[in-house]
């Protein structure tokens, strides 16, 4: 079942708030994300950069890890908010991490200009590496 528009709006606002806490002195590209669990809780994350650039964590993974750390890895949807012209789709690493927790997770990205992009993790990453690949 698709997430209702009221919940998405709540998630969008919380993600926009998290984006204000982004630590992005290098890219100056703040990102906020929120995940919705099947229990109805919302967890937020922002991107956190590092002077050693490769250690940067994206907002999406940060939000997923917050949910997992709280013992709620049953993720239904993720909302991503940026202040760019076009909505940002999660990067490859974040798609792989999302797919670990559900290939049917809804992904809804908002730009500041009110543009929206909707997809499912399985659309964004059709052939992920998964637990079945570890079978020996
Ligand atoms: N970033 C995210 O937080 N999520 C994405 O899906 C793509 C990129 C962050 C990483 C970095 O801090 C900045 O945006 C520019 O790449």
What does this 3D model show about the protein?
With 136 residues, the protein is of the alpha+beta class. It has a single domain, classed as Cytidine Deaminase, domain 2 (3-Layer(aba) Sandwich), CATH 3.40.140.10. The chain contains 4 helices and 5 strands, in the order αββαβαββα. It has helices at 5-19, 59-69, 92-101, 121-124, and strands at residues 31-37, 42-46, 75-82, 106-111, 116-120. A 5-stranded mixed sheet has the order 2-1-3-4-5. Strand 1 (31-37) and strand 2 (42-46) form a beta hairpin. The chain starts with a helix and ends in a 12-residue tail after the last helix. The relative contact order is 0.16. Bound molecules: tetrahydrodeoxyuridine. Tetrahydrodeoxyuridine (THU) binds next to helix 2.
Quick structural summary:
The chain has 4 helices and 5 strands, in the order αββαβαββα. The protein is an alpha+beta fold.
């Amino acid at each position: 079942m698709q997430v209702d528009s009221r919940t998405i709006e709540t998630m969008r606002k919380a993600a926009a708030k998290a984006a204000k806490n982004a630590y992005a002195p290098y890219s100056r590209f703040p990102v906020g994300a929120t995940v919705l669990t099947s229990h109805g809780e919302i967890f937020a994350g922002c991107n956190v950069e590092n002077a050693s650039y490769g250690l940067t964590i994206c907002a999406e993974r940060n939000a997923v890890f917050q949910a997992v750390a709280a013992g709620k890895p049953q993720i239904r949807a993720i909302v991503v908010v940026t202040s760019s012209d076009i909505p940002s789709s999660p990067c490859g690493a974040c798609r792989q991490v999302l797919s670990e927790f559900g290939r049917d997770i809804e992904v809804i990205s908002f730009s500041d200009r009110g543009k929206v992009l909707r997809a499912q993790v399985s659309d964004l990453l059709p052939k992920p590496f998964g637990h079945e690949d570890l079978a020996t």
